[in-house]
Design a protein that fits this description.
By secondary structure, the protein is of the alpha/beta class. Among the domains are: 84 residues, no CATH class; 62 residues, Sun protein, domain 3 (Alpha-Beta Plaits); 218 residues, Vaccinia Virus protein VP39 (Rossmann fold), CATH 3.40.50. Helix content is 42%, strand content 12%. It has a 7-stranded mixed β-sheet, with helices on both faces. It has a 4-stranded antiparallel β-sheet with strand order 4-5-3-6, with helices on one face. Strands 1-2 form a two-stranded antiparallel sheet.
Length: 640
């Protein structure tokens, strides 16, 4: 049949007419179905939900379905944390509809939209109400956190490289361990907890360096200078960790178990005591030495001192607890708290507000021993960075005059910063750059404290790297310096005033023998009121303190000659002070180590645990109470 254009057009019009008729019929059926539904049913809601996914078995109506036909969809899972999804209002509409079907009604226009928004907002804030009018708090779904993959014991690859770098700085480059911590934690930024982990294990290596030397098959600890990787492998084997793949030439893995058993059975190896130290201390302490040797080979506890100018011990403990730092009180030291958690102390708000300083509990007994009172004139002759100076200021309630002296100006600058944070504004600093500074103060002070330079044997567990260098050659010179300082600095006290001579050593030759020799040289001028030993076996660091009272002035002729001498004594003073700095003094050279601590906090932290203040950023890493930097996690050096 030939193509007829006119017929084609008619067919098109007829088809359009049939389609229109069909649509009208469908709309009529749809309206009829709607009239059979409950009045509160919202067709627009159905349109919204029809595009969502429902589980099998749920029946809903759909406008574009044939009349009377029900379509099966999967019910939708309502996620109340999904704030901005397309079906948010529909979900909340469903909940309200199911709760109270008879009272539920939707209005057209803006009122409907506003009510929907208010409903969404109320549920979002947990403010929707039940039938009795009480608020119903809708619990939010907990965040799902994937379980961490368990890590095998030991250092990660990154931590291993960092440990090797620190060990090379300390063993090969001969840098103090606290300075090595500070340098590397300033370069490598890692979390305080991780920093404390690294510091804690490196400190453990240095505490028993002779032990690991035997396990590694070396003759002496100094051989680790050429075999750093052997030290790491020996530590892994002793800790029971899987041995890493390290290039350690000459390391015999076959006899490891036997060598570890031999080292454990040897008391000097097992307690980390060098042979020279055993000989020296056995000679001076006799039967008392074995107990002190064992205590010095253990990890040091972490103590802080409450700044009573700003808070109390109970208030500080509560404030630190809110910041996640666990502490406990210390029996016999009412200003001390022991930190029992591996926390970054120097990153806490309490530290920034000056409410505490890191200081060993034994050291906290020295300042009260001086018996100061508000309004007095007190001189701290070897102040260093100010651990005991700040304690004295607190005991004086910030009233009176407190002069802090030292030969190192940078230490006094640190003291000033610490004093500002602590709120101690009665402190005056003076650099000892000549003997005139001392002589001008003769007979002017009510109290004088002489924290003399010493061997530092009482704080060895906080400066574990220092004990592997023989101090006996230096000890002879140190004793001369101690006698000279006691002789000259004691003249600054008034008649009737008191002087405290203290050290962080446990050797009688540096302590009571020095005091006895001084009293023998000045009969009738000074009298010994009291003396006290604090031993490492007590759980604190080792200290000695003696309190002397001045009865009358020194020989007039000798004092006049000293007053006229303005130059001849200077070299002796400078020489004494410089050797003193080289000596291990808790508030001087070793205070730097403690300052790096929290950073860390075996410390800080750096030595015990964490938070890099010392050399790295003057706040917290290597081991100081005054610095709040990196380490708080491990306490690295010695505390003030």
């Amino acid at each position: 049949m030939p193509f007829d254009a006119g017929t084609s057009q008619r067919d098109k019009r007829s088809s359009k007419s049939r389609t229109s008729t069909f649509n009208k019929t469908e709309r009529s059926n749809t309206q009829k179905n709607r009239s059979d539904r409950p009045k509160s049913f919202n067709s627009k809601f159905v349109n919204k939900t029809s595009s969502t996914n429902f589980n099998k078995g749920a029946k809903v109506f759909r406008e574009d379905a044939p009349s009377g036909e029900q379509v099966h969809f999967k019910p939708h899972f309502t996620d109340h944390d999904k704030r901005h999804s397309d079906n948010t209002h529909a979900e909340h509409g469903t909940r309200s509809f199911n709760k109270d079907r008879s009272k539920r009604s939707f209005n057209d226009g803006a009122d409907k939209q506003g009510r929907s928004e208010r409903s969404f907002s109320n549920r979002r804030e947990g403010l929707n109400k039940g039938k009795d009018g009480k608020k119903i708090v809708v619990p939010r779904r907990k965040e799902i956190v994937n379980d961490k993959i368990p890590r095998k014991p030991g250092f990660t690859t990154f931590q291993m490289r960092l440990v090797q770098s620190i060990l090379n700085s300390a063993l090969v480059d001969k840098k103090p361990l606290d300075k090595s911590y500070a340098m590397w934690f300033a370069k490598v930024k890692i979390p305080a907890v991780e920093q404390g982990f690294v510091i804690r294990h490196i400190n453990a290596m240095f505490r028993r360096l002779s032990f690991y030397a035997h396990v590694a098959g070396l003759k002496r600890p100094s051989d680790f200078e050429r075999h750093v990787n052997r030290l790491i492998l020996s530590y892994y084997a002793t800790e029971g960790w899987p041995l890493p793949e390290l290039n350690a030439e000459g390391f015999d893995r076959t006899g490891l178990k036997k060598r570890i058993e031999e080292a454990i059975a040897h008391p000097l190896y097992n307690e980390g005591c060098p042979f020279y130290l055993e000989e020296l201390c056995s000679r001076e302490l006799k039967d008392k030495w074995p107990a002190e040797r064992k205590a010095l080979g253990e990890a040091a506890p972490r103590f802080i001192r409450v700044n009573t100018l700003k808070t109390t011990r109970d208030e500080l403990a509560a404030a630190l607890s809110e910041e996640g730092v666990v502490t406990k009180s210390v029996k016999g030291v009412h200003t001390a708290l022991e930190v029992t958690s591996n926390a970054a102390l120097f990153r806490t708000l309490a530290f920034r507000e000056g409410k505490f300083e890191q200081q060993d509990a034994g050291s906290q007994l020295i300042a009260p021993f001086l018996e100061v009172a508000p309004g007095m004139r007190v001189i701290d002759t070897c102040a260093g960075s100010g651990g005991k100076t700040l304690h004295l200021a607190a005991l004086m309630n910030g009233k009176g005059s407190l002069i802090a002296m030292d030969i190192e100006g940078w230490k006094l600058d640190e003291l000033k910063a610490r004093a500002r944070r602590a709120g101690a504004f009665n402190i005056e600093t003076r650099v000892i750059d000549s003997t005139k500074v001392i002589k001008r103060l003769y007979g002017h002070a009510d109290r004088v404290i002489i924290d003399a330079p010493c061997s530092g044997l009482g704080v060895l567990r906080r400066t574990a790297d220092s004990k592997w260098a023989d101090i006996q050659p230096r000890l002879i010179e140190l004793k001369k310096i101690q006698a000279d300082i006691l002789e000259r600095y004691s003249r600054m006290v008034k008649v009737g005033g008191k002087v405290v001579y203290s050290t962080c050593s446990i050797l009688p030759s540096e302590n009571e023998k020095q005091v006895k020799a001084f009293l023998a040289n000045h009969p009738g001028e000074f009298v010994l009121e009291a003396e006290e030993h604090i031993w490492p076996s007590s759980g604190f660091d080792g200290f000695y303190m003696a309190r002397l009272r001045r009865l009358e002035t020194f020989d007039a002729t000798a004092e006049a000659n000293d007053a006229n001498d303005t130059t001849s004594g200077e070299p002796s003073s400078q020489e004494s002070d410089k050797v003193a700095t080289a000596a291990v003094n808790p508030d001087n050279t070793q205070a730097d180590a403690a300052r790096a601590n929290d950073t860390v906090t075996e410390p800080a932290d750096a030595a015990t645990q964490a938070d890099n203040a010392g050399t790295a950023n003057s706040t917290e890493s290597a081991g100081s109470s005054e610095n709040a930097g990196t380490a708080d996690s491990a306490e690295i050096g010695k505390q003030d």
